[in-house]
Amino acid sequence: MRVISALVILSAPLLALTASASTKEDIKVYAWPVSEPKPQVLAEITYDPQSLTASTKKYHQIQSTSSEDLVRVGLYDPKTTDWTGIVTSGSHFESKYAKTIVLHLDHEGRPFYVGFSASVPSKNKKSGEKNNQGFESLKVVLKPPVQGPQPHLNKPVVLNPEGKVDEKEPEKTFIQKYWWVLALFLVLQVVSATGGGDK
Description:
By secondary structure, the chain is an alpha+beta fold. The protein contains three helices and eight strands, in the order αββββββββαα. A hairpin with a 5-residue loop joins strand 6 (98-105) and strand 7.
C-alpha cells in the first residue's frame, strides 16, 4: 500500500508535465496566389489553445508573387479542398513589412478562420532608424471566442385561465380619484356665497 502511494506521488509531476505538453497542436497556414493553380505552405505553427500562446515552427517565403498579385491566406484541407481565409496584396509579403497571422479559435480550441496583416516597421525613437529586425519571420496571435451581447429580457407574460393577458386598469391621478370632493367643495362655496348676500 505504501509502495503504491509512493509511486502515485512520484508520478504526479510526470503526468502533469505530459498533460500540459499534450495541449499543443500544429497547424499549417497556406498562401495561394490567385495566379497559381494550387496553394503553398506559408507557415507551420504550433499553438496552445489553453494558454493562448503560439509560435512559428517554419515560415516559407511565397514564391513567384508579384506586388500586384492578389494572395489568399488561410486554412486549406488538401483532402476535401475546403478553403477558409482572406485575400491580401502580394506586396505585403515583401521583407520590408512585419507580418502577423491571427488564428481565430472556436469553443473547442480549433482554428476556424485566419486573419493576416502586414505593417511598415516603426522608427526607433532614439536613433531615428527603422527597425528591420526579423521581418522575414511571422508573428502569430490567437483570438479565443468572445461571447456576444446577451439580450435583457423582461418578465414573462402571465396569462389568465382563458389564455388572455390580464389587463390592469391604469393608475388614476389625484383629480380622477377625488373629483367629487372638489365638486362638492365648489358647490358649498357657491351656496354659502349666495346665502350670505340675502341677509
